[in-house]
């Protein structure tokens, strides 16, 4: 997954938080990230590759600190065009307990 500042307006160009999208090479999966609106979701169109979805989910977690919401927290939506929308949320703080200080 590319650097998030290459995907949309960087923090210096926009107030209120970073906003951008990433679309898979086949065009069937799109990751939406809008910090100001606190809106993080993936839209997957029919025929998407499961391996591509795994890469995007991995990139969302490692690059953006986001993970899928459980179905009991928020069920996926099926949009009018048949696209499936999966919602993401920031990884809970306890998942970052292994961070190390690199500069003080």
- The percent range for helix content is 10-25%
- Nearest-integer average pLDDT: 82
What is the global morphology?
globular
Radius of gyration: 15 Å
Main β-sheet: number of strands, strand sense, barrel status? Answer: 7 strands, antiparallel
- Sheet-strand content, in percent, reads 25-35%
Order of helices and strands: EEEEHEEE
- Counting structural domains, the number is 1
Separation of the first and last Cα atoms? 29 Å
The count of strands amounts to 7
Low-pLDDT ranges? 1-12
Describe the structure.
14% of the residues lie in helices and 30% in strands. The longest helix has 15 residues, at 50-64. It has one domain (4-92). The model is unreliable at 1-12 (pLDDT under 50). The chain contains 1 helix and 7 strands. With 104 residues, the protein is α+β, with helices and mostly antiparallel strands. The two termini are 29 Å apart. It is globular. It has one helix spanning 50-64, and strands at 8-9, 19-23, 29-34, 39-44, 66-68, 77-78, 84-90. Strands 1, 2, 3, 4, 5, 6 and 7 form a 7-stranded antiparallel β-sheet that branches.
